[in-house]
Design goal:
Elements (H helix, E strand, L loop, with lengths): L13 E5 L3 H15 L4 E4 L4 E2 L6 E4 L1 H9 L4 H5 L1 E6 L10 H10 L4 E3 L7 H14 L21 E2 L11 E2 L24 H21 L24 E2 L8 E2 L6 H4 L13 H11 L2 H6 L2 H9 L2 H4 L8 H21 L13 H9 L1 H16 L8 H5 L2 H10 L12 H55 L5 H22 L16 H13 L5
Parallel strand pairs: 1-4, 1-5, 2-4, 5-6
Antiparallel strand pairs: 2-3, 7-8, 9-10
Helix pairs in contact: 2-4, 8-12, 8-13, 17-18
Length: about 525
């Protein structure tokens, strides 16, 4: 970005980011905006076209970049592309394959192609090198001044002077015009051009040369495509699983997946374990029931894999050390699986040692899944993996992520319809929760107001009753005011206590019992008895 400082919008060097989905483009645009705090990016896809002409980073799709590279109208724009980032290139085999293939051939700049799910990486690199070597190149022969036709060579005709030969040709800038002007020479038709005009013409030609260098790509040396493999993550993955109805996430050990998918129960060398997962695996391997199945010599191997023993010479444990420790654990576990050295316990039936060990790693997960299946059937769902059952818990998942400060998050599903139903259900649940929260806040404020009003009414009732008591004769007006205040206070207390029984919507005066007061009050309201 610093290279573009001080340049006009039409002179910016451009980086192109190519992604196959609109969602990924939007995410990258947000990241760029947050990092650089300005509209330096442009986005162009099937839905949005924004700031394409003035951008420094263009975010687009393979099909649209393909059209840009093939269009003569965009030649000036293409000449300013300095680098390209092609993300998720495994989509080459899924969609827009022709556009992807043409991009590798037509891109006039270095590029980096990214993917985390490539199978045969070497085959792809070989194909890319073949494509890049066969791509056409455009070379420009910029004419030098000496190669110009003679009639176009700038020349200045010197004036006729004493001792000078008429018609002598000098280089521009050496002649001085006399007061009488310039003389004609033999073979010249008309007047010779003025020195100032020749200078402007030369500057115009030089500007034209520079422009031609910028607008058209110059032939460059073809660089081979290199394969760079990152076998390790910057930070390890935390593998967690959420079972609907659970109050927290459960740790999911990757080795437990072998129990479900791999009948050979062999752990691949490419399966990565974090430091915590290594500790969990070693703990399961040292379980008493596992040791009971092992021969004596295997106990010694387990002792050598104890962390205190394995890292005894390490003052600081690095990521590479953890990786070596994981490899040692996997080798021992695979030897158990291949050799079948485990004795079969009667309580395990036909299960072998490795299978029992994997059950130990996933026991908590299996228990929660069993609870979920029973709960789903009790609620009337056809099974616990039905989309309607999972949708009913998506808001619980989001609230749990929020409670553990793991938002924002991306939720992926391979079914587009299910993805839309999850979003619809989440919005509906959040709106319901927002309404409930607002009502609770309103109820809390209303409760505080009720308490304050009840206290105020009680004070007024006490003063009014004292005033009536001081009078020696009945005063119907004061008694009516007292009854209204008592009714209002009783109604507020009923709301405060959550009662809806009308019999509690009054407060009995001290000298009368509740039933007689209630009957008298109702008769007065119905007009059978005068107040």
């Amino acid at each position: 970005m610093e290279a573009n400082a001080g340049r006009a919008d039409s002179e910016y060097n451009i980086i192109v980011y190519v992604a196959p989905t609109n969602a990924l483009m939007t995410q990258i645009a947000a990241d760029i905006y947050l990092k650089y705090k300005g509209p330096i990016f442009g986005i162009w896809n099937a839905e949005v076209t924004h700031n394409v002409d003035k951008c420094q980073v263009l975010i687009t799709s393979p099909a649209i970049l393909d059209k840009i590279l093939l269009s003569p109208n965009w030649a000036s724009f293409v000449s300013r592309i300095r680098y390209a980032i092609l993300d998720e290139i495994h989509f080459l085999a899924l969609q827009d394959s022709e556009s992807w293939a043409r991009l590798f051939m037509l891109l006039p700049c270095p590029f980096v192609a990214l993917s985390a799910t490539l199978g045969n990486k070497e085959l792809l690199v070989s194909w890319l090198n073949t494509v890049r070597e066969s791509r056409p190149t455009i070379s420009i022969d910029v004419p030098q001044e000496s190669a110009l036709p003679k009639e176009e060579v700038p020349a200045v005709i010197t004036p006729s002077a004493k001792g000078a030969k008429p018609g002598k040709v000098e280089k521009p800038g050496k002649g001085v015009a006399p007061a009488g002007g310039w003389q004609k020479t033999r073979g010249d038709k008309g007047k010779a051009p003025l020195h100032g005009a020749m200078k402007e013409e030369k500057e115009r030609q030089e500007q034209s040369k520079e422009a031609s260098k910028q607008l058209l790509p110059v032939e460059e040396k073809k660089q081979p495509v290199e394969l760079i493999v990152h076998s390790e993550r910057w930070s390890p993955l935390n593998r967690l699983i959420y079972v609907p109805g659970s109050s927290s996430f459960l740790r999911f050990h990757p080795a437990y997946a072998l129990k479900i998918r791999d009948e050979s129960l062999t752990i691949s060398e490419e399966m990565e374990f974090s430091s915590r997962e290594c500790m969990d695996l070693h703990k399961a391997m040292c379980h008493e029931e596992v040791k009971a199945m092992l021969p004596t010599e295997e106990h010694e191997r387990l002792k050598s894999l104890t962390p205190d023993t394995f890292f005894a010479k390490k003052n600081v444990i690095l990521k590479s050390d953890v990786r070596h420790y994981a490899v040692a654990l996997k080798r021992v576990l695979n030897s158990w699986s291949r050799a079948q050295i485990a004795r079969v316990l009667e309580i395990l039936g036909s299960q072998n040692l490795v299978l029992f060990l994997l059950v130990l790693l996933g026991r908590q997960v299996e228990n929660e899944i069993g609870r979920m299946e029973i709960e789903a059937k009790a609620l009337g769902f056809r099974d616990s993996y039905a989309t309607d059952y999972l949708s009913s818990h998506v808001s619980d998942l989001v609230r749990l992520l929020h409670a553990e400060k793991n938002l924002p998050a991306l939720i992926f599903t391979l079914h587009r319809g299910f993805c839309e139903s999850l979003a619809t259900r989440l919005i509906a649940d959040l709106e319901t929760l927002e309404h409930k929260t607002r009502m609770e806040e309103y109820d809390e404020q209303a409760a505080r107001n009720r308490v304050a009003e009840i206290q105020q009414l009680d004070s007024q009732i006490a003063k009014l009753m004292a005033q009536i008591k001081r009078l020696k004769q009945q005063n119907p007006v004061l008694e009516q005011q007292l009854a209204e205040l008592q009714d209002r206070s009783s109604f507020l207390q009923m709301q405060e206590n959550g009662s809806s029984d009308l019999r509690f919507m009054y407060r009995s005066p001290p000298e009368k019992d509740e039933i007689s007061t209630w009957q008298l009050r109702m008769q007065q309201k119905l007009g059978f008895v005068e107040g």
